[in-house]
């Protein structure tokens, strides 16, 4: 299972619009994707699950993926979390 560690740079963290864009990005891929933050794990394709993590700007998160397009998903999700 590939994983990457990313520092969230969005001013709002992963809340509201950035979180919605992150989830939309995750849903483009067939792989199972998730986010780990502060000891909690969230389904990257679930907005409510992601918002429940409370990820703020500057937070370090781990993004994981498992499946046939996992590497591509991680590249896209890194972009969604940082850019």
Structural overview:
The structure is a single chain. This protein is an alpha+beta fold. It has a single domain (3-82), classed as Histidine-containing Protein, Chain: A, CATH 3.30.1340. 39% of the residues lie in helices and 27% in strands. The protein contains 3 helices and 4 strands, in the order βαββαβα. It has a 4-stranded antiparallel sheet with strand order 1-4-2-3, with helices on one face. Strand 2 and strand 3 (40-43) form a beta hairpin. The mean pLDDT is 96.
Question: At the third CATH level, what is the topology name?
Answer: Histidine-containing Protein, Chain: A
Corresponding CATH superfamily: HPr-like
Span from first to last CA?
Answer: 24 Å
- Which CATH-level-2 architecture? 2-Layer Sandwich
Strand order of the largest sheet: 1-4-2-3
Count every helix, treating DSSP H or I runs of 4 or more residues as helices.
3
Shape: globular
Mean pLDDT: 96
| Structural class designation | alpha+beta
What would CATH call the class? Alpha Beta
Helical fraction:
25-40%
Radius of gyration: 11 Å
Order of helices and strands: EHEEHEH
Total domain modules: 1
Biggest beta-sheet profile: 4 strands, antiparallel
Number of strands: 4
List keywords for this structure.
single chain, Histidine-containing Protein, Chain: A, 83 residues, four-stranded antiparallel sheet, alpha+beta, 39% helix, 3 helices
Short description:
With 83 residues, the protein is an alpha+beta fold. It has helices at residues 16-27, 47-53, 70-82, and strands at residues 3-7, 32-37, 40-43, 60-66. The protein has a single domain, classed as Histidine-containing Protein, Chain: A.
């Amino acid at each position: 299972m590939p994983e990457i560690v990313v520092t969230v740079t969005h001013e709002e963290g992963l809340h509201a619009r950035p979180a919605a864009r992150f989830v939309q990005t995750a849903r483009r891929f067939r792989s199972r994707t998730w986010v780990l933050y502060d000891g909690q794990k969230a389904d990257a394709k679930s907005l409510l699950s992601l918002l429940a993590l409370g990820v703020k700007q500057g937070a370090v998160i781990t993004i994981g993926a498992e499946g046939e397009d996992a590497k591509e998903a991680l590249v896209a999700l890194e972009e969604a979390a940082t850019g």
